[in-house]
Structures are given as structure tokens and as C-alpha cells.
From TrEMBL:
Protein name: carbonic anhydrase
GO biological process, one term: carbon utilization
Organism placement in taxonomy: Bacteria, Bacillati, Actinomycetota, Actinomycetes, Micrococcales
Functional summary from the UniProt entry: Catalyzes the reversible hydration of carbon dioxide to form bicarbonate.
Family: Belongs to the beta-class carbonic anhydrase family.
Any Pfam family the entry gives: Pro_CA
Stored PROSITE patterns: PROK_CO2_ANHYDRASE_1
Length: 212
């Protein structure tokens, strides 16, 4: 499957989800049995941990279709990067989707901390600290609303993942992988492409060439 074909499959699944006509593919006993010894997902997805944004549901896919990594606010650390590298290089998925969503609690907390200078308790503070650059960049662009900061965070992740990971950068440069930045709208259930790195077969915002 090419990156464009993988994205088209996710788009079609999301259209069914929005229309209230999901097919729930690959969720039967036969599929479960067929996946006992190997997995061949067609996409890696890096999304938020929010319970309202279950990736397999909103894209109407099933078992074995997506390799999913989720953290609050799509915050990355070494374990997250290693997991994404596994999906993109070991499993060889042609598409890596970065999925943000409306009214993100982690982004809201980061924006509030930026305003007040007060960090939340415990390790939540670490999540907030890792999201502060996106809040700061959004503010420099005149963006103060949470959903706008969410989109800024997605855009930054699309560009930063290959900057931080040699394996992901090499896969993008070789044309084996496309990174797609997507925002999800809770009210209507629609997932919109807002940025991409690589060729999805159609114009996309912030499309980028080879990274050096």
C-alpha cells in the first residue's frame, strides 16, 4: 500500500464514521485468528490519550490495521519515538498520522500554565512543559484559542518527528513514509488533514521536501 492509498483508506473510514454508517471491518473472530502470529498494519498513528478520540473507531478500521501510540497531547519522549520508529521501520507502515483534537485537556493545561506561570502537580507538569513550545509558537502567531494551539502542536510534531528520529527521517527521504498531521473535531467526528511531510498524491498544507 502506498502512503496515498493508506490515507485514502483512513479518509473513507472517517467519512463512514461521520455519516453514522461504520462497517466495523476486521473485528470478527476470523480476523482475530489470522493475526495470532504476525501483524501488518497499514498506518502508524500517534494520537492523544483522550478517551473521546479512539483512533480505530473514528477511522472505522479494525484489528491489525493501525499501530497506535497515544500520549496526552501527543507528547514525545524516547519511548514514544522508539514506538513510532518500530511502526514506521520494523512494521514498515507507509503512513504516520499525528492526530490532535478539539478541546484537548493537555493543551488547555499548558495554555493556562503559560498564562499564570503555575505548573500542575506531579508528572503532569512534565506533559505541560513539553507542550509549552507549541503554546509559545502559537502565541507568536497571534493564536490564543485552544483549538488553534492544538493545530500548531500537530504541525510542529509533523516537522519535529523526522528532526528527532534518524530512522523516521530516512524513511521520509526515501519515499517509504509520509507523515500526516490531522485534527479531529469532537462535535462532528471529522478528521481534517492540516499538514504533511511527503507526497500523499494531492496538495496538502505545509508539504515539505527532503530534510537534511
Amino acid at each position: 500500500m502506498t502512503p496515498a492509498e493508506a490515507w485514502a483508506r483512513l479518509e473513507e473510514g472517517n467519512r463512514r464514521f461521520v455519516a453514522g454508517e461504520p462497517r466495523h471491518p476486521n473485528q470478527d473472530a476470523a480476523t482475530r485468528q489470522s493475526l495470532q502470529h504476525a501483524q501488518v498494519p497499514f498506518a502508524t498513528l500517534f494520537g492523544c490519550s483522550d478517551s473521546r478520540v479512539a483512533a480505530e473507531l473514528i477511522f472505522d478500521v479494525g484489528l491489525g490495521d493501525m499501530f497506535v501510540v497515544r500520549t496526552a497531547g501527543q507528547v514525545t519522549d524516547s519511548a514514544t519515538l522508539g514506538s513510532l520508529e518500530y511502526g514506521a521501520t520494523v512494521l514498515g507502515t507507509p503512513l504516520l498520522v499525528v492526530l490532535g483534537h478539539d478541546r484537548c485537556g493537555a493543551i488547555t493545561a499548558a495554555a493556562e500554565a503559560y498564562e499564570t506561570g503555575e505548573s500542575p502537580p506531579g508528572f503532569i507538569a512534565d506533559v505541560v512543559a513539553r507542550l509549552t513550545p507549541a503554546v509559545s509558537q502559537a502565541r507568536r502567531r497571534g493564536i490564543t484559542e485552544v483549538n488553534g494551539i492544538v493545530e500548531q502542536n500537530v504541525r510542529q510534531a509533523v516537522h519535529q518527528l523526522p528532526e528527532r528520529s534518524t530512522a523516521i527521517r530516512q524513511a521520509v527521504n526515501a519515499g517509504r513514509l509520509v507523515i500526516a498531521g490531522v485534527t479531529y473535531h469532537l462535535d462532528v467526528g471529522r478528521a481534517n488533514l492540516v499538514a504533511s511531510m511527503g507526497d500523499l498524491g494531492a496538495p496538502a498544507t505545509d508539504a515539505a521536501k527532503e530534510i537534511r
